[in-house]
């Protein structure tokens, strides 16, 4: 049996051949140090107890299907959250819940794209965006984020990538994999291009509260209330509840002519019956309660200190440089091509895995066009980060392709 032809061009390399090789090594009895996925739970970053308790309390009433859009109390909480961020026109009927943001990404693109339609996606990106565009019959057109400017989108390059078939612009802020937090001026420039070319804006803001060094995350929908926008967020990162698969989208800036797109989203929501109901009951408590992430991201907080420690260890390795991330959970390090002559970064990551039993992610897996970057997750405690960076340093000392 052959797989569908449309899958031939779809890649999701962060869970692709490298991960399969890691599983083979584990099956053979090797212990692998995994710093490849932004999964808080394995590193002791647990979901706050009030969120768990509220979900458990509601289990008896969460056994049947919910409204296809999600339970009303959770949609009210999401709407109120966006209102508090300055997106005043969002109401519960503008909110739809999903099995994580991942499911919603696919749904918003399925409802939008016809064959050959183009979507502007950052490079590097969270690769589900590129894969989902292709899966939905569209074409991902990548706009450059400038490493020399702190990985901020290059507005001139973005403008040059807009064509007659462009339907939407994706904004990932804070960015995965780079950790960039976009300045207000950059966002306004991106939104002006969307306004000028009548594009739908799709914002992935899953890391909106994980920002460091006094940086401010600007909610894109609050900066452009007149532009049709789908804003997405969830519990997996800020609230350390990745396994709950509890995400949301909010529609803003839509006029009376948006009914057709809304109907498409509703059709897709109906076809999947409903999101995971127990996980929905965690949303109201999470958004309305004490925001425990704040203690983790300030100086002295665990995520703040682990980011600094891992960054210092990485940039101390000869031939390795890294823009210090202002948000999210990742270090996106560059291997100096003059010192580390890499032409296949997936091969590099597999060789690192086999020789040092360390699992990281390669830069081209995030749709970067040069094979000279790798991503390391800094969720682990200091001693684990020390072990990982020591293994990487030993490996790079003698590695050649």
Please write the string of helix (H) and strand (E) elements: HEHHEHEHEEHEHEHEEHHHHHEEHEEEH
CATH class categorisation of the largest domain: Alpha Beta
Mean pLDDT: 95
CATH topology of the largest domain: Aspartate Aminotransferase, domain 2
Q: By CATH's scheme, which homologous superfamily of the largest domain applies? A: Type I PLP-dependent aspartate aminotransferase-like (Major domain)
Calculate Rg over CA atoms. 21 Å
How many helices? The count is 15
Strand order of the largest sheet: 2-9-8-7-6-3-4-5
Describe this structure in words.
- Helices cover 36% and strands 16% of the residues.
- By secondary structure, the protein is α/β, with parallel strands linked by helices.
- The chain is built from 15 helices and 14 strands.
- It has helices at 17-27, 49-57, 72-84, 100-110, 128-135, 155-160, 184-196, 220-223, 259-271, 277-280, 283-288, 293-297, 302-315, 345-356, 382-398; strands at 33-34, 95-98, 118-123, 139-146, 152-153, 166-172, 200-204, 229-234, 247-252, 320-322, 330-335, 358-359, 361-362, 373-377.
- It folds into 2 domains: 5-46 and 295-398, Aspartate Aminotransferase, domain 1 (Alpha-Beta Complex), CATH 3.90.1150.10; 49-288, Type I PLP-dependent aspartate aminotransferase-like (Major domain) (Aspartate Aminotransferase, domain 2).
- Helix 1 (17-27) packs parallel to helix 14 (345-356).
